[in-house]
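Revision sheet: structure tokens.
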Amino acid sequence: MVNLSFQIRAEGVRQQFDAVQPRIVEAVRRTMDEQHVAQQARIIDKLSGEVLQSHTGELVASVRLLNAVIDASGVEGGVEAGGGTAFYGKFLEDGSEPHIIAPVNAKALAFFPSGSEGAGIGSGPVAQALYQGTRGVNRSIKPGKGPAASGLGGVVVMFVHHPGTKATHFMAGTQDEMKDEEIAAYQEAINDALQPGG
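Predicted:
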């Protein structure tokens, strides 16, 4: 019978690991920031006509880098988009089911299609798209009704049947597209940190 056994003195291994761990963590943090800058640029390209056409630039302007930070649980950072006036980013990312849009603080909704005299008064690409997308489908559209909208070429509706939004996955898709490159960058950074003097 042959028996091989190895004994590793844990204290020595622990000391070596403690010496290199800060270099590894910093390398991961730095690489994470570099990768997220690349992802941020890719997402902006997608929102600038590659996947979606920007009408106002609000969603593009909302794409921002969350710098990587080191804490007790590890390293965390990222890229985010949407929020504030670009709240609709989540609906473009994940899609939405068909739904009804109804007034909250009024009795009706008023839309001013592009080119109408009232265009620019509480209107925008979303309102115009809803108007265009529901023409002939939504029986509640009553062109020229209502005192505020009628003289300005507006359309008053009691509600809108929104057909829903197809998911574009401009964020998750970017992460998936860049996954292999990101893993390789982390591996290279860790390998470099493990080198003597790294």
